[in-house]
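Bench log, entry 3. Co-assembly request; chain sequences pasted below exactly as received.
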Amino acid sequence: MGLEQINTLMEVFTAEDPMPFEHPEGDPWKDFREVMRIEWKMDFTYKHVLGKYSKFFIELANKKFVTTECPGCGKVWGIPRPLCSDCLTITKWKELPGTGTLIGYSVSHFVPAFMKVEKPYVLSVVKLDGADTLFTHQLRNYGDSTDDIKVGMPVKVAFTDEKVDHPLLLMHFEPA
Amino acid sequence: MEILNKERRVFVLGGGISKFAAERVDGNMRDWMNEAVLEALEDSGTQIADIEHSTTSYFSDHFDKQLKAGAIFHDNIGMCPKPNVRVEGGGGTGGLAIRNAYAYIKSGLCDSMIVFGGENMGRQVPSDVAQQFIALASDTDWEVQVAGFYIAYYAMMMTAHMDKYGTKEEQFATVSVKNHRNAMYNPKAHYPMDITVEDVMKSKMLSYPYKLLDNCLLSDGAACIVFSTAEWAEKNAKSWGSKPTVELTGTGCGTDFMRMADRPFPDPGIIHFRGKQSGAQQAYEMAGVKNPREDFDCFEVHDAYSGVELVTYEDLGFCKPGESGKLAEKGVFDLGGDLPTNTSGGLIGFGHPVGATGVGQGVEVLRQLRQEAHPKRQVELNAKRGGMDSHGGTGTFCAINIFERRD
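Structure output for the full assembly:
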């Protein structure tokens, strides 16, 4: 037996001194250059609570876009928040028409590991009519070319009938 | 804001860097921290036994797979049972750690502090998983779930800047060219390179308008700085009096909403870093900076993406909003220009091992002010003052610190 006893062993190798220019008199770590690499897999599933935001997601399933309005200062947050962070008043739910304006966008040819998205995809920040702050989501159905996407163009909230892995994906933006 | 005890001052005694690289297979974060600490102790001429307190700077528990890693770094260098505190603010962690040293020493909680920072970002996970880990530093309920990740967030900010001010892709590409070039004179840099604007423009499109070479790097590495009062240094530091004296004279911190969508619209909207503007104002006031472009000899800025460096010039007051692209094209921020920025190579050329980055900026400014930098990246000292700017998220946490040479 020996190294093969280690189920997760990937390799054993000799590493080079990464800073030889610092060590003209020889590598001070020369006795520590033998390196082992193993595979370490971690896999978790959480039971995640969406808390006081939950009504937003429930209403998305009803094909409605709701957010919160502050009864104290009147501010309408694009992304709902149960406590108005401008004046610390508990907010009230409010439905918005779902129309708005494109404020910024990106066209991604790279997807982080956890998302199922076809490349390229467009992430956008939108000023919704009736809201004082913005909302971030994907812009879809923008036509044949991303060249047609322009800051300032009118967009709208659209809903999907497909099954989704996160309730936020029940909606997206589209050109209006 | 009234600054506390003016008699009590905070000095920068020495620094160390453990090489920034794509993957440091020769060890892990613990080893790099040790290397950075040993260099900082040697540079400062101090003994760890005399240093009273430490601050740990690292960002991600996911990358290192180790909670309260500070306990390990601290005990590895024989600091137990002396006090330690961890500071965390995403990409701004290192800048906040330097600020923490100021606060602790200025308050009298300690007379000396060693700040060590590092990150294990390398290639232990594929880049799409690394981007997932980093994306967890945005709102996981609202931003991550729509396939949000940092390159895309910053790309959205940049398209808005381009639309408002007419900033061009070629203009922010010049930042990448400069920072990769500056890194050529920094042997500890991850990605030194002699490239052209055309190379940047032709590199792989990741998230329009950002191409591969507009991005900073996922790096392994560590950095360390020793700070103290003058009285402590006189007693305990061999460097005191034998090397140029450098003082930490200003520190500022600002924040903004985690989700850029929540920020006051239209100003700053998604274009400007409000926390950077207010943090800089605090730091400048403390250090008596009136005109930053003249009052600094060098400035390390948080170039997470090339365009971020341009916006940062505007928010730190190096120029007016919308002017940064044209000035960068003219070479105002190059070595030899009005205000050389990221002489180390920055996050794009030197590298971005997150918890090390802000601390490493401090080491670079220290080297510059002592005129110890490689001759090809050494700046001319006039104001004898250097700045550093470190931020996390899309400007969620911002820390601005100022060092000054005292002859």
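Residues 51-175 of chain A form one domain. DSSP finds one helix and ten strands in chain A.
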